[in-house]
Amino acid sequence: MAKETQSMALSVKKADDISTWYTEVIQKANMADYTDVSGCIVFKPYSYAIWEKIVKTVDDRLKAMGVKNVYFPLFIPERLLQKEEAHVEGFSPEVAWVTHAGDTKLDERLAIRPTSETIMYENYKNWVRSWRDLPMKLNQWNNVVRWEFKHPVPFLRTREFLWNEGHTVFATKAEAEKECNDILNMYDAVLRDHFALYGVKGKKTEKEKFAGAEYTMSIELLLPNGRAIQGPDAHHDGQNFAKAFGIKFLDKNEKEQYAWQNTWAITTRMIGVMIMMHGDDKGLVLPPKLAPITVAIVPIIFKDSKEKVIKKAREIKEKLKDYAVELDDREEYSAGWKFNEYEMKGVPIRIEIGPKDVAAGHVVMVRRDTMKKEFVKVKDIVPKIKKTLESIHDNLYKKSKKIFEEGVVEVKSMAEFKKAIDSKKMVKALFCGKKECEDLIKDETGGASSRNIPFGQKLVTGKCVHCGKQARYSVYFGKGY
Ligand SMILES: [Zn+2]
Fold first, then answer.
1. How far is the CA of 466 from the centre of ligand 1 (A)?
2. Rounded distance from Cα 441 to ligand 1 centre (Å)
3. What's the CATH class of domain 295-388?
4. Which of 196, 228, 370, 444 has the greatest CB tally within 10 Å of its CB?
């Protein structure tokens, strides 16, 4: 019983100190552990199971779009990394290098991939010869290293993280741009239908676009603490890399053309976003589609009725075989302790069943998001669980949408802008689009950066919130995580 004496309770409330809350939840829900290398975490089985679910749904969707998986090496020779100027400039401060093999200094340093454009495209130039080779749609699931010097946060900001990186090649700009948009919509659907997360799709400003891209599209989210965070993104690279790497093909008229390319990704950072968004003072709250355990059945065990109760609990588990059900009949833990544990782990539904419930032909069902308890007849359990899981998902999605909508303030002056940022809001403002203007905004607001230029804008008329020159569009600004 030693373990039972460990407190499951969190020492702070989420609304009071979200950073401490986050750190404690991750540890107590058994999601991750720290290592001796700062910024590198262990994904424990519970969080890795969530990542596997994310990988499965994204991978299925990519394959349905005609994308094939490949694997390229972890190491990128220095000369390749330097081939595209903007790209190397963007990444070089965070590249980790291999310089030695044993005691022998290498002739050429090898970068540990921060992203794989440069190593992949060196091969792509040999694989793309004719219009018949296109489109070429490849993806890899791997790890990358970006040696950030900011304070690391498990999942949200780690030096090594897991992701997918799609690298596609097309004969025309129009085809590439259509795919870029399709991919962003696919990620958006995954966020909505699996993570129960609301985000806004849009284009990044020139300052914030991917190093080497012609433009970047992203999904931006807002956390309950007023911090903006970027979700998945898709970059249209134009012919920038094609020209740097010589990715050319003969078109139908036997004329040589440079190819058009995209890259796109979803990362393990989204696990952190999900924790921050949905969790509460009792711990994690997981969206049903990503929860490793969907339903936990906790039998209330007494000596004289034990067999009867466990038998009924097994019957219920069997009825719910379409879900990941855990029947927890461990006798070394009390029912109360187990309740706390499943709450901490964010299991969407808990079923309690004791001898009186067996006699009455019902169970007690508790949903994690609202903690609402109700009796459910055993004969109604299958449709009831299905409906409740859908309701949990919808509730979480609506809450995350509300956080975004209530967290944005439209501003017309820099005074309003600063006031909103100081009160932990995100800002929507007219903006000229110039990098220098954006740099000044960041300085004057204590670090607010542009998030994206949301899609679906009508022709914008008005003045830039900062410089007063003609505005080009309306932009979300906020302090990033
Ligand atoms: Zn301006």
1. 5
2. 9
3. alpha beta
4. 196
Beta carbons within 8 Å of 41's beta carbon, 6+ residues apart: 32, 33, 34, 35, 154, 155, 158
Mean per-residue pLDDT pooled into runs of 10, the chain (481 residues): 63 96 97 96 98 98 98 96 86 94 97 96 97 98 93 95 98 98 98 98 95 95 96 97 97 97 98 98 98 98 95 98 97 95 98 97 98 98 98 98 97 97 97 96 96 91 96 96 83
Q: Which residues contact 226 (CB under 8 A, 6 or more apart)?
A: 407, 423, 424, 425, 426, 478, 479
Q: Which CATH superfamily is domain 408-479 in?
A: C-terminal domain of ProRS (3.30.110.30)
CATH class given for the domain over 13-278: alpha beta
CA of 463 to the centre of ligand 1 (A): 8
Distances 97 to 75, 94, 100, 147, 222 between C-alpha atoms, Å: 9, 10, 9, 10, 34
Length in residues, the chain: 481
Q: How far is the CA of 422 from the centre of ligand 1 (A)?
A: 21
Query: Looking at residue 7, what is its pLDDT?
Result: 67
CA-based Rg of the chain, rounded to a whole angstrom? Answer: 25
Which residue, chain included where needed, has tokens 């490849």?
138
Instruction: State the Cα–Cα distance between residues 136 and 175, nearest whole angstrom.
Output: 12
Tracing tokens 């379409």 back to the chain, one arrives at 322
